[in-house]
Amino acid sequence: MSLDDILMRVQEGQELQVPESWTQGRITFGGLTAAVLYEAVAKDVDPLRKLRSIEVSFTRPLEAFKSFDIQVEILA
After folding, report:
1. Average pLDDT score over residue span 59-65
2. Separation between Cα atoms, residue 36 and residue 42, nearest integer Å
């Protein structure tokens, strides 16, 4: 599965499962995790707003081979 395929599934709000080619052992690559999170936020935010900075802190790894969905809550 390509990066475009994964990000398209995020845009469509589909449940995801990271394929083995995007993992290191049981954990998903951090760059892919950040890209998936950004894509989920971008689809729920007004397109006129411009992203000027993003910081991603990993408090727990995204486990591979398990289905997940993303819920976005806009705070400000």
Report:
1. 84
2. 10
**Structural domain that includes position 49:** 1-76
| Coil vs helix vs strand at 6 | helix
Query: Domain total for the chain?
Result: 1
Whole-model pTM over 0.85: no
Q: Cα–Cα distance between 64 and 51 in angstroms, integer?
A: 28
* Nearest CA-CA partner of 3 in 53, 49, 38: 38
- Mean pLDDT (the chain) is 87
Backbone angles phi, psi at 27, to 5 degrees: -115, 140
DSSP state at residue 9: H
